[in-house]
Amino acid sequence: MRAAVLHEIGQDKLEVLDDVEAVGFGPGKVRIRVRATGLCHSDVSAMNGVLPQPAPFIPGHEGAGEILDVGDGVTNVKPGDRVLVCWLPACGACPACKRGQTQLCLAGFMNAGTPNFKRPGGDVFGFAGTGTFTEEVVVDAGCAVPIPDDVPFDIAALIGCGVTTGLGAAINTADVAAGSSVAVIGCGGVGISAIQGARLKGAAQIVAVDPVESRREAALRFGATEAVAPDALGDAKQRITAGEGFDYVFEVVGKSVTARTAYETTRRGGTLCVVGAGALDDFLQLNMFELFFDEKKILPSMYGGGDVLTSYERAIALWRAGRIDLESLITHRVQLAEINEALDQMRTGTALRTCIEI
């Protein structure tokens, strides 16, 4: 079967090969025919080594498709079911799951160290234990979440990661208050979803911050009340908050420099929500006086900061009701053979989300 493979960490292009085989099928597993997958910035971060991932590997974790086969003991899905891929399934038994913090379950991460593909030359890993830049993938049954028939595969794929992450950051983690002021730094697919979440929660001012003009223009269409380049954020802070700072600031880039800017842009007593996934060796510096004196809440948000199955259902309900726009998040579409064009679209910021149709 065909799949897009990264041979070594640090390479900037994927090679589409036709000699890849999905392996590991057996009890508790399912085989999925991937129909659509989104390109998430985390895929690029894994390719360049920002996020740890063994290689060679197949990127992709934001996917949807059809169940081809199920292993012994699988009862949640059957062949022919339409599903989205959950890259961080809850085991239901670990301490995090028992506390109700299923987004912190580590069971899914354990799968990342087990190859679920192979080629004539050896094993191939799937990113985050999945790997959806391929025609077929074998994953734990918990990774396959049934979707209603009226949800297209491309929309379901977005809900599988970016939409759930961004919406959840605003709704679950930060719990944005009605009438508040919000700034969102980084307006790709996840940042735009955070903007939609803040709008749903009733924020009065939502300032989108991004260096790419087309993304700033898009943010206005999705609910931002103002959109500025990074060098204009200070002026927006002064005009909108009289210099005090925003009630909520979302960092959706994953870098210490933007997290520091976000901290400085948050008012005393306000909330900084860290959504971007950054590198192990990129440290955010705060002095102990400001940490105590400013009383700013720093809230990391992992996969939307809540139960992902509930978040999926909420996103579908909001989409059906016309309260969130998911179709317009997909600004580009490519075939698997054109995957490197999708990577260029992400790196240049021309795409909010590129859908790879498989």
| Average pLDDT metric | 96
Share of residues in strands: 25-35%
Radius of gyration: 20 Å
- Helix run count: 12
Compute the number of strand runs: 19
Give the CA-CA distance, first to last residue.
Answer: 11 Å
Structural class: alpha/beta
Largest sheet: 7 strands, mixed
Low-confidence stretches: none
Helical proportion, percent range: 25-40%
Shape: globular
Describe the structure.
By secondary structure, the protein is of the alpha/beta class. Helix content is 29%, strand content 26%. It contains twelve helices and 19 strands. It has helices at residues 41-47, 95-98, 107-111, 153-159, 162-173, 189-200, 213-221, 233-241, 256-265, 288-294, 308-320, 339-348, and strands at residues 3-5, 15-17, 21-22, 29-38, 57-58, 62-70, 82-85, 117-119, 122-126, 136-140, 144-146, 181-185, 205-209, 226-228, 246-251, 266-274, 297-300, 330-335, 353-357. Strands 4, 6, 7, 10, 11, 18 and 19 form a seven-stranded mixed sheet that branches. The protein has a six-stranded parallel sheet with strand order 14-13-12-15-16-17, sandwiched between helices. The model has no long low-confidence stretch (mean pLDDT 96).
